[in-house]
Design goal:
With 250 residues, this protein is of the alpha/beta class. 36% of the residues lie in helices and 16% in strands. The strands form 4 sheets. The protein has a 5-stranded parallel sheet with strand order 4-3-5-6-9, with helices on both faces. It has a 3-stranded parallel sheet with strand order 10-11-12. Strand 3, helix 5 and strand 4 form a beta-alpha-beta unit. Helix 4 packs parallel to helix 5 and helix 4 packs across helix 8. The relative contact order is 0.14.
């Protein structure tokens, strides 16, 4: 499931979120929470969710886009293990776990996530790595980053800037890429026929689930981005407004 299934935009729990996590724990069901968060590592993300009322969430239940990208590269390009990055602890953690060397020059890869402290010298460093042959990996393409007191350009805007400046395209390892979901399934050794993907966005996330051949459940919350749902060409297997509907309660 995606993190947005459990939390709405204001950071409060969606209806049935706490009960769903409790039910998954009680039944011994395996689950992952997919997120593009890159400022925090998995333990910090889990601790944050526990404070919000999801007491059954542990670090091993968190799967970041940075983890998906690092694992995919480690599997399919094991000889290319030098990387630079713009982002936070999630990227650093993913690179370390997958035995990448973090370098300042001649990198194979440049991971790009959210970094509110990045300045133009950091972008200059990024362009230097790209010019030396590093391939950009975007693990978060949010256009805006909404802080407490201001709105900032998001990592997606940074990716676009670097693409324009370098003349090179980034590889997307976040939704709408289905590679993220496929990586999560490999991470938990899940088969298509036993996987349920719960998400909140029809056009990107449900599409990714369909490409991976898994059962898709769209969680809607009143008037949201999925207006005109049944006018679309692609449809989820199930639509719910309360997460307790996943296990027969309402």
């Amino acid at each position: 499931m995606t993190l947005s299934v459990l939390l709405n935009e204001s950071g409060t729990l969606r209806p049935g979120a706490a009960e769903l996590i409790e039910e998954l724990g009680n039944t011994g069901s395996s689950f992952l929470i997919l997120t593009e968060r890159s400022l925090q590592n998995t333990a910090e993300i889990a601790a944050d969710l526990q404070k919000r009322g999801l007491r059954g969430v542990r670090a091993e239940h968190i799967y970041t886009t940075a983890m998906a990208a690092a694992e995919r590269i480690h599997t399919y390009a094991p000889g290319k293990n030098k990387a630079g990055y713009i982002g936070g602890k999630a990227i650093e953690e993913a690179l370390s776990v997958n035995e990448f060397s973090i370098v300042q020059e001649h990198a194979d890869w440049l991971f790009i996530g959210k970094d509110r402290n990045a300045v133009f010298t950091d972008y200059g460093y990024a362009l230097k790595l790209i010019a030396e042959g590093a391939e950009m990996i975007a693990v978060d393409i949010a256009r805006l980053d909404k802080g407490r007191d201001a709105v900032y350009p998001g990592p997606g805007a940074v990716v676009k800037m670097l693409e324009h400046a370098s003349g090179r395209k980034a590889v997307m390892m976040c939704f709408p890429s289905h590679h993220l979901l496929a990586a999560a399934m490999r991470h938990m050794n899940a088969l298509q026929e036993e996987t349920v993907f719960v998400c909140t966005d029809l056009k990107t996330e449900v599409t990714a689930g369909k490409k991976c051949g898994v059962l898709t459940v769209l969680a809607v919350d009143g008037y949201d981005q999925n207006q005109g749902l049944f006018d679309q060409k692609i449809h989820p297997d199930m639509v719910i407004s309360d997460l307790r509907g996943l296990y027969g309660r309402d």
